[in-house]
């Protein structure tokens, strides 16, 4: 059955595996934090910010994203940013999330690592206790920086390993292949952390192979260029290694010229374990519900396909077996009671 309404998607219980905390910095919050903290930005109004959010490629976005993140100074700022997203989760019935954060963006400006991670973790704990939203935090290394910088960051994370589930890899893919970080990822694994990596967003399918073979990842973030490599597709289908795909992001960053050309449903129909995610919702025009809605509008996403991608997300998550079972039941109950209704 085709999905036609936004309210149905809004109420659908959802899981998000690819979202950057710095990418949920909405213009209103960015400008108010800039005023509070006395940070000068090249934008003064919300209109100017939206005007700047026109990107031809990943790097155009990253330049603005790192600029915006400079307004985050205190532990409370990181709490508020995270809490803002968790309120969104409540509104959109996102029941489990595994957000990324980029500590190097902050420690390079002299912000203590502990303030960043403690602010974020306190908000995640409060959301679990007050609203039952579960989460796992993933620390990303910026791949445009050096291996040594990544090792230093991992060192700073050691007192906070209880707050972390995994390490990831993000920022500029071109010129910074996964293997650059194989030794850091190995060390992270010896500390008990799981691993994920952005690969095959702007870069070739070869980067996905490298993330698999040199970083031992549990999931690939993006991974859409896998569609160019039939051997890789066979591998992904055989292993069910998940891809965390971000449709609105991919169109905003011109990976696909328009949503109707996006390959996510082709990957799904081939049997790849794909999931839907929002990446940087404040910059790309929508949270998880809007990503599903865009697929329903441009690719005629069906309820069965939405259900399958959510089952994939639950199974691909780092939640424990009990939590996975509870989320699967919640999803089944929703679909049984809302199959024919469009609310
Ligand atoms: O889509 C992305 N790709 C790489 N790095 C990022 N950091 C935030 N979003 C992204
Ligand atoms: Zn991302």
Automatic annotation (TrEMBL):
GO terms for molecular function: hydrolase activity. Its cofactor is Zn(2+). The active site is at 201 (proton donor). It comes from the Bacteria. Its EC number is 3.5.4.2. Residues 13-332 form the Adenosine deaminase domain. The record marks 222 as: Important for catalytic activity. Keywords: Hydrolase, Metal-binding, Nucleotide metabolism, Zinc. Zn(2+) binds at residues 18, 20, 198, 279. It catalyses: adenine + H2O + H(+) = hypoxanthine + NH4(+). InterPro entries: A_deaminase_dom, ADE, Ado/ade_deaminase, Metal_Hydrolase. Substrate binds at residue 280. HAMAP family: Adenine_deaminase (MF_01962). Belongs to the metallo-dependent hydrolases superfamily. Adenosine and AMP deaminases family. Adenine deaminase type 2 subfamily. This is Adenine deaminase.
